[in-house]
Design a protein that fits this description.
The protein has about 180 residues and is mainly alpha-helical. Helix content is about 80%, strand content about 0%. It contains 5 helices and no strands.
């Protein structure tokens, strides 16, 4: 009888031990796999973050270049808004000073110097379309854009178009 109890107790103990070992092994395996994939996920997240940071930096640089090119275009347009020989309003002069100072601070040296020559009316200054192309090349890669690809609407067109527009409007009203 003692042998039977020992045999049953040993068998039950073996079954319980095997069952507990099985559960422990499953949990250990699950945790190991979970840790492995969590580590991989963090590595992937880190890689994606680095790539996003690089893309964001490139975007910021391109945006900065775009703003500098726009500054050159704006200062030229504001400067050309007052025909030579006409008086400049205080607001216009203030705007020109603001843009000129921004250009001196933010533009690359060569571009800032060439723009200053143009605004100061120096005889060696580049014309407005050459300045725009220089800005494009200084801040972006060089391309095939030429002076003839840039359209400028001079002050003389304002004077020529006024009578034409008035006549056209009068003729249309009469019909």
């Amino acid at each position: 009888m003692d042998n039977l109890i020992t045999l049953i107790t040993g068998s039950v103990s073996g079954i319980v031990a095997a069952y507990l070992a099985n559960i422990w092994l499953k949990i250990r395996l699950q945790e190991s796999i979970k840790h492995h994939y969590a580590t991989q996920l963090e590595e992937i997240k880190s890689t994606i973050k680095k790539e996003n940071d690089i893309q964001n930096e490139l975007f910021k640089r391109n945006e900065d270049k775009k703003q500098k090119i726009e500054l050159v275009a704006e200062i030229l347009a504001v400067w050309m808004a007052v025909p030579p020989g006409e008086d400049m309003a205080k607001e216009h002069r203030t705007r020109m000073n603001t843009l000129s100072f921004q250009a001196a601070i933010w533009l690359p040296e060569k571009l800032a110097k060439e723009l200053a020559k143009r605004l100061q009316g120096m005889p060696t200054a580049l014309i407005h379309s050459e300045l725009l192309i220089l800005a494009r090349h200084e801040l972006n890669a060089e391309d095939g854009l030429t002076i003839s690809d840039i359209t400028h609407w001079p002050h003389t067109l304002e004077k020529q178009n006024r009578p034409y527009r008035l006549i056209k409007l009068k003729n249309r009203d009469m019909a």
